[in-house]
Amino acid sequence: MEHYETDTRDLAGLAWSPDDRVLCVWESLAEDYKVVLYSVDGRCLGSYLGYQMALGIKSVTWSPTSQFLAVGSYDQKVRLLNSITWKTITGYDHPSSVTDLDLVVYREVEKKKAQLNPNDVLAGNTSPYFLQTKYEVLEDRPVSIASNPLDPNKPNPKHGIGTLSFSSDSCFLASINDNMPTTIWIWDVKNLVMSDILIQAHPVKSIAWDPTQTRLAICCSTNYVYFWSPSGCLCVEIPSEGLFNANSVKWHSSGESLLLMSKDSMCVCYLSS
């Protein structure tokens, strides 16, 4: 249909907007921090140049309504672009210390309990204890966010915004800073503010938004699946025979069930109303 050169030196990735009207392309991390937007016929609709002489873009995602483009960077920031001027509406930082008293911070707390059922050992769980987990709301400030130090000698550093995901109604954005692997940041896109922070006991492996309502499912390679919504957080033990550590989660299009996957098995969980 069309063949054209892009205004990039080393094109690293591309993504169609959900309405199929705009093609977003961006530079590799070793080049400029640059995003360029094209129409279907190759016309340049706009571009955004963040900064130069630094590591650049790590992740890009569109909102389901195609109104916003979220760009995650190695500088641990998310920049939100609008689809009218292709300029930044706001930027979201991921600080190592949170002082805002109005911000809700949830922390997962694990507690060991003695095994009540001896059949659990036969099912593969040889530990005399099992873990119970729940969320607590942290009211004291400041709240410190655990962060892994950057090793400049290793390639593909676990640093910067590697995960970005909009809710189905585009009202919320979830992000994960790779050097803070146990923390999920929830942003209120309508009001352009940070909404909630979830601090997990283990590194986050997978997140997925319910396609029918504002509800986020989370897996951390444990036998629990975690849920966040504007009304609160919930930890749900995965019903299975033996130990099932979920590493990945996907929603059914109806929002009534979840597909959970571990290293070598899977299960489907149906949610009651």
Automatic annotation (TrEMBL):
Domain of life: Eukaryota
Gene3D superfamilies: YVTN repeat-like/Quinoprotein amine dehydrogenase
Record-linked Pfam families: WD40
Name used for this protein in its record: WD repeat-containing protein WRAP73-like
Natural source organism: Limulus polyphemus (Atlantic horseshoe crab)
Organism placement in taxonomy: Eukaryota, Metazoa, Ecdysozoa, Arthropoda, Chelicerata
Gene that this sequence comes from: LOC106462571
